[in-house]
Amino acid sequence: MIALSDNVRGAIYMMLSMAGFVLNDTLMKSLADTLPMFQAIFIRGLFATALIGVLAWYRRALWFRPCTTTSKVISLRVIGELGATIFFITALFNMPIANATAILQVSPLAVTLGAALFLGEAVGWRRYSAIIVGFLGVLLIVRPGSDGFTVYSVYALAAVAFFVLRDLVTRRLPPDVPSLFVTVISSIAVMVMAGFLTLPIPWQAMTLFQVVILALAAIFVLVGYFFGVMTMRVGEIGFVSPFRYTILIWAILLGFFVFDDIPDLLTLVGSAVVVLTGLYAFYRERQLIKGRDRHATATARS
Q: Which of 192, 187, 169, 189 is nearest to 74 (CA)?
């Protein structure tokens, strides 16, 4: 049996993580015409919270007690999670899955920009150039002012903004905060939010098939999270991170086979621009980290 290197295993885990998340998106979107959105989010949240809660209990993450400052950081992160969920699921329910997923892939570039603007992280002109080109790629997908433009493209962009908030705040979490604890809190918050938002809407009786679909969606969310964590523990982040863009391949294939959606040429070109600029940004960040490591090593030896 061939032994896989840590980097290869990390790349496989990343691709499995992306597959889990996009399968969840596909299952949720399949219910768009038959089930109210917030009811679907709420039911999925019940399953997801139960699954993640059991895992967190097993790993003893539920025993963590955050201090006041950490609680504020977690609360701000939850706001980002709530906004991202509302806006992305709304966009997903109303536009092709490949388009919504492609727009979301600008998030790493947006996080880099946000870290430079709000956290004071150093970003050179090369990565700034990649960010600008990446956002131009998003414009090719969204195409404001064209006949194909809809408000739901703006919803997808709003989801990106909330994802950026979530990820930037996550960087401020102390290292002793268990990831599973934060995930459970976020899952409960999304579930409760969806429950409140369903109150003004008549509850729709559900079929066993719909319940099974939402349970599977929750399982795939857990798969995405689990392999995402495994990815960060195996291999080099700079090597495995670019494999996150395999989610676009999954989204295009599932959009075609499940929803009969075929992205047009401009959407494919825009998606390619976003991916290539994201890969370049990953490459530059990896080079900078290596440079700092070499400098630190040279300083220590001197």
A: 169
